[in-house]
Design a protein that fits this description.
The complex is a heterodimer of chains A (110) and B (115). Chain A has 110 residues and is an all-beta fold. Helix content of chain A is 0%, strand content 61%. Classes of the chains: A mainly beta (110), B mainly beta (115).
Chain lengths: 110, 115
């Protein structure tokens, strides 16, 4: 079993829909990161969470430490949101090494 | 500040050769991490350096090695290249420990093709 699981693996939606991507982990963590990888390969950090909720524009990230679960939400989705979204956690028991999820490929159709 | 730079951007090698990739982090950043990404695969962690010391290492064979210099620039080397080493190699820098909560900034990557 992977220590970081993302769901769904693939998601196709229509422009304007509310999007939710989930990340579950099994290790004790110091922090959780959400990143975005564009089709060209560039990776951008979206959020770092250790508790609660953060919002940036149309993106919202939440984390529930007790349930070992985080969600990334996109409101009013747009075709330019099409990308791979990746979750990564800092493992407290492995010298804070980042453990990466496999990513969720999101396609937003106009 | 300039972003993370990686050189070269593209590289073609043949099996059995060795290759050295370079990464210059954002000025002031002390941590550099390396990742391998093969087509359709997620990021695979190679190693992390902090202030010239290897802090973490992923599950890759000894053919993969790296180092960090006093100016925080980092190099990774792959010896005796195999076809399966063809991948996008990404470097990321952070001020402290990304696993501890610092944001990582990624370079554009070096695309290595092994023929």
């Amino acid at each position: 079993k992977n220590e970081v699981e993302q769901s769904p693996q693939n998601l196709t939606a229509q422009e304007g829909e509310f999007i939710t991507i989930n990340c579950s982990y099994s290790v004790g963590i110091s922090a959780l990161h959400w990143l975005q990888q564009h089709p060209g390969g560039g990776i951008v950090s979206l959020f770092m969470l250790s508790s609660g909720k953060k919002k940036h524009g149309r993106l919202i990230a939440t984390i529930n430490i007790q349930e070992k679960h985080s969600s990334l939400h996109i409101t009013a989705s747009h075709p330019r949101d099409s990308a791979v979204y990746i979750c990564a956690v800092g493992d407290m028991d492995s010298n804070y090494q980042l453990i990466w999820g496999a990513g969720t490929k999101l396609i937003i159709k106009p | 500040k300039a972003g993370v730079t990686q050189t070269p951007r593209y590289l073609i090698k043949t099996r059995g050769q060795q290759v050295t990739l370079s990464c210059s982090p954002i000025s002031g950043h002390r941590s550099v991490s390396w990742y391998q990404q093969t087509p359709g695969q997620g990021l695979q962690f190679l190693f992390e350096y902090f202030s010239e010391t290897q802090r973490n290492k992923g599950n890759f064979p000894g053919r993969f090695s790296g180092r960090q210099f006093s100016n925080s620039r980092s190099e990774m080397n792959v010896s005796t290249l195999e076809l399966g080493d063809s991948a996008l190699y990404l470097c990321a820098s952070s001020n402290g420990h990304a696993g501890g909560g610092d944001t990582q900034y990624f370079g554009p990557g070096t695309r290595l093709t092994v023929l």
